[in-house]
DNA sequence: CCTTAATCGAGACGGTACGTCATGTCTTCAG
DNA sequence: CTGAAGACATGACGTACCGTCTCGATTAAGG
């Protein structure tokens, strides 16, 4: 993230001289950007100039907080992201289902919410924006998944010889492909359970003839 | 498609007066755009102006053929797609490995990888582009995969109770997720075999008899 | 003058490719700037942005011709400057009177014309603008004066031992001081003749007692 | 003068509560502005922001004392003016030479020269500034010159039929033109004498008897 | 001694203009 | 009629100042 922004990093708070930054302005900026996206403005047309006008704010007030369009969008996205799911902890299968269900919900939401729709659409056009999204949103979820799998392996609920990174992709990949890369596919209820159970069981027939 | 472009539509060839359009210019434009993408230029910075400069061509020469960045991009994709892989037909596992290996190769090659990334990037914001990619690239591969799985199910190499669409995502998803959504992950040799074998076998520990 | 501008310099005319610059746009810019000055807008508030709006022209169209505010103003000023006076050539005194009369007229005009008033006012705030004005307006007049004095010296109408540069300042200085540096002083008809005759005759009493 | 400033107006001193204004800050501001002018910064680039930075002072501290750049500048001028020259009183020629020498010195000194230039620059656009300079600097010198000339006329050192105002301009004009309007010209030693002697003697050739 | 109040440096605030760049359209000359 | 070249109006970019404001910290004089 840019040095102009300390959103998310717990800075040790320097002596704080001069007039403090207005929280109202900050909210106005994020809300304004959000509103424009919800009104269907494509991300490509979301200029800093326009956000400033909408928020009733000077451009410098934006640049003081974010070093560019991309850095701002990271925070807009973060504000729109759902919380990390809470794991039940009642076993590998249950935890995996909850994780995948969270992904599925986001996929469902991004079809109804113009905001998520728009944001996810253009995100990969910018390496910087994509990298920030990776670090701030994707990576934590990924760590959560790996942690669940590690516990499952220790408990004997998962084969000991399998690579955890690969295993994570095996569960998450099918859902992401449907949710993010194939927007025309539906995401029916029960899909999470189906994926988890099928991957755990494997696709080979049970009784070899 | 725009009326300015007759790529793909078999126009009945109007009388054709005056100087004919230069095929050299057309190739220069497509190659120039491709080169920029390969060089890592983010799609957002790929201006018509820049493509024209790179190709040594007037801007009007581009607008005469395509009505905008999107339409041009559809043709760039068409020109850069690799052939469908040939299946060995020696069994479910081998066919799946060949299919995934084809995906992996594409992710490894910088040319296809850049395309893949950028197509995914623009996908949702450009229905036209997405539809073209869908029809020309995704759909044939998908049909191929489903066909392989259907044969495997008939042969008893695949569980009979599994949904083929789901099964396809189970194999393809992990590879695509690595190739497209996590570009920092490597795609080592042997990954295709590993995915296929693990998905077929499942992740549950072998029950100790 | 800026390389972006060839106003006044007789360029050898390169092959001239691409669309030629619009004379209409050029006139609109100069007229727009002139109009704003005449309407009493101070030079300091005469932004390029505002001129472009007034002239109905893009900013780039201005920057294509002039490299900045100052270069543009040089041409605006030139357009408002009176022509070089025509010398009668009937003798030193007559020529000098005509030269000074031209200065006087300009001084009178700059009190009635808001344009000249404004332009001359702020000109010296900018070294570049002032230098350009020196080179394009002042210097030619100065050369004219020196030429007149040189001829007078050859004809025996002027003392042979006097430095021509100094002599020029002796005639021009008093008028410029009144016209430009002391705006509250009046510039009555007959002043030119009075200055020329007095400087020629000297201030010492005729018959020393 | 602005109500924000009480420089020069003998205010009846209100009860004066709170922290008194810092004289150190005031000096720092005036010195900073002076320093920037001496360093050749064009008046147009002399922003309040920059003066505050140079002086190590908050912007508000400046605006508390002066209502704008103009008002500040009036005080800068007052602080930088040299003393009136002392006249020898040994005759018209000597007094005139001393007066002109004082002007020449001012043009040579970078400090006064920078001021002179910039005052002239802003003169017409700022009636307030001009009036202040007029009253504080020009008028006394002018009165001095006229007084010298009046005495010379009474003594018979100057033609009786010449207008004193005109005579004053005849001596002062050439020097001011060189110092203010043609800064590239040098002001060599001996120039004052040369001007005085030449104007007194006139430029007409001595009539060959 | 302890308020009270105006000052200080610092810097954020909503604005306006800067000079550059890309947009898609147009207008020229050359083939 | 097409080629390239490039001018056109438009509008966003990120920076610099504008003049105002709001902070915590000084610095007197008056209670």
Automatic annotation (TrEMBL), chains A, B, C, D:
It comes from the Bacteria. Signal peptide: none annotated. Residues 23-84 form the HTH tetR-type domain. Keywords: DNA-binding, Transcription, Transcription regulation. SUPFAM superfamilies: Homeodomain-like, Tetracyclin repressor-like, C-terminal domain. The keyword ATP-binding does not apply. Residues 47-66 bind DNA. PROSITE patterns: HTH_TETR_2. This is TetR/AcrR family transcriptional regulator. It comes from Streptomyces thermocoprophilus.
């Amino acid at each position: 993230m840019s040095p102009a922004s300390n959103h998310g990093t717990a800075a040790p708070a320097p002596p704080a001289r001069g007039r403090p930054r207005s929280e109202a302005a900050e909210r106005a900026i994020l809300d304004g950007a959000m509103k424009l996206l919800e009104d269907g403005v494509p991300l490509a047309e979301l200029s800093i100039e326009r956000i400033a006008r909408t928020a009733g704010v000077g451009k410098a007030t934006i640049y003081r907080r974010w070093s560019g369009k991309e850095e701002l969008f990271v925070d807009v996205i973060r504000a729109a992201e759902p919380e990390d799911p809470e794991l039940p902890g009642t076993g590998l299968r249950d935890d995996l289902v909850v994780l995948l269900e969270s992904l599925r919900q986001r996929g469902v939401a991004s079809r109804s919410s113009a905001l998520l729709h728009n944001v996810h659409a253009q995100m990969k056009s910018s390496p910087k924006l994509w990298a920030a999204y990776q670090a701030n949103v994707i990576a934590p979820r990924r760590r959560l998944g790996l942690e669940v799998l590690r516990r499952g392996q220790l408990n004997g609920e998962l084969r000991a010889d399998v690579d955890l990174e690969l295993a994570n992709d095996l569960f998450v990949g099918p859902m992401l492909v449907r949710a993010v890369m194939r927007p025309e596919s539906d995401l029916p209820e029960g899909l999470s359970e189906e994926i988890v159970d099928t991957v755990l069981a494997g696709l080979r027939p049970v009784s070899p003839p």
